[in-house]
Amino acid sequence: MPIDYDKARRLLARRDPVLRDLMRRHGACGLASAQHEEPFTALVHAFIGQQLSAKAAATIGRRFDALFPAARPTPESVAALSDAQLRAIGLSGQKISYVRDLSARVRGGVLDLPALSGLADEAVIAELTQVKGIGRWTAEMFLMFRLQRPDVLPVGDLGIVRAVQRVYGLRKVPTPERLTRLGEPWRPYRSVACWYLWASLDNAPAPK
Fold first, then answer.
1. Residues 151-184: pLDDT tens digits?
2. Residue from 6, 112, 157, 202 carrying the catalytic annotation
C-alpha cells in the first residue's frame, strides 16, 4: 500500500515540533520521486553510491545506465559486460565483484527480487544481506526508496546522525539506542521523518 504522505505529515507534525518545522521548510516529501522502479537496477545503483558523494554517484549511475540504451539492465546483460567495461564507467574492482555476485544470485534464483515486496522489513534485510556488498544500510535504503516502506529508521546512517544532532541541539553524537528512542513517536512513518532529516542537510543518504 502506498504511503499516505498527508497523513504522515499530520501525525509527525502533531507529535514532533522539530519535524513540523522541517516539513514547513522543505515542503512535500520526496521519497516517492526518488525511487527506482526496477529492483535489480536499484541495487546496482546502491552499490555505485557506496562511499561516494551524491554527485559522483549520479555521474557513474548515468554512465552505467548508458551501457543499456535500448532496454533496462538485467542480470544477464550485466553479466555479459567485461570487467574492463565496468571499470571504464568508474566502478572499482570491489564494486564490480558486488555486481557480479548480485547478478549471479538473481540469475540462479537464489535471490527472488520480485518476492521481496511480499516480505516483512526484517525478512527483506535478511535476504538482501546475503549478497556480497549489501549490509544493513543498503538494505534499509532499498526498503525506503524501492519498496516504499513507511517505517524504516536507519540508525547507522551518518546523515541521520548528523541531522538529529543538529536539529535537536544535542551536545553529543546520538547513539543508535538514543536515535531509536527519539524516533519512537515517529512510528509508523519513520521513513518520512528520515527524509526530512536528510533534507535539513541538503544531502543525500550517507553510508556508514
1. 999 999 999 999 999 999 999 999 999 999 999 9
2. 157
Cβ neighbours for 18, distance < 8 A, ≥ 6 positions apart: 167, 168
This prediction's pTM: 0.88
183, three cell numbers: 524516533
Distance of CA 48 to the CA centre of its chain: 12
Write down the residue that cell numbers 541531522 correspond to: 163
CB atoms under 10 Å from CB of 120, counted, come to 9
157 is catalytic: yes
CA-nearest of 143, 125, 144 to 193 is 144
Q: How many CB atoms are located within 10 Å of the residue 98 CB?
A: 22
C-alpha–C-alpha distance, residues 103 and 95, integer Å:
12
CATH number among 2.40.10.340, 3.30.470.20, 1.10.1670.40, 3.40.50.2300, domain 5-33+151-200: 1.10.1670.40
Q: Give the model confidence (pLDDT) of 62-99 as tens digits.
A: 999 999 998 889 999 999 999 999 999 999 999 999 99
Domain boundaries, the chain: 5-33+151-200, 36-145
Q: What is the CATH number that goes with domain 36-145?
A: 1.10.340.30
Length of the chain: 208
